[in-house]
Design goal:
Elements lengths: L2 H6 L2 H6 L1 E7 L2 E7 L13 H16 L4 E12 L7 E11 L3 E9 L5 E15 L4
């Protein structure tokens, strides 16, 4: 199963509304159209929604090399509030070893402004991503 097929099976991301745009070679790009149910009591996108978007991009990128990868550590910093439009998360691989890989994700709004930055470390298992 390719990483994009694996990500299509992510029921939570699909429920939230995350859309996979690109995936392969240690990178991924995902998007989310902001809807009223994504907003918190202050009228801004709830932090868990931003984390889910970044984490999904991280999962897609880290599993795109054919080996099952799971998160060891993640960190998210919020830089700007988002209220409407779309959010895009672009993940890139910044380091790859036999058992670990390191990723950076930029979450941006429609104007291209950084909303959040995410760093993730993945553990690369010996298992291949399972066939469809």
């Amino acid at each position: 199963m390719a990483s994009d097929e694996l990500m299509a099976k992510d029921c939570f991301a699909r429920h939230v509304g995350v859309e996979l745009l690109e995936c392969g070679g240690g990178s991924a790009c995902v998007r989310l159209r902001i809807l009223p149910h994504h907003l918190n009591g202050l009228g801004i996108v709830q932090g868990g929604v931003v984390f889910t978007l970044a984490d999904f991009a991280f999962a897609a990128a880290s599993n795109s090399r054919g080996a099952v990868a799971v998160a060891l550590d993640t960190h998210l910093s919020f830089l700007k509030a988002a209220r409407d439009g779309t959010l895009t998360a672009r993940c890139r691989e910044v380091g790859l070893n036999r058992r670990t890989a390191f990723y950076a994700v930029d979450v941006t709004d429609d104007a291209g402004a950084l909303v959040a930055v995410f760093q993730g470390t993945a553990y690369r298992k010996t298992d291949a991503v399972p066939p469809a």
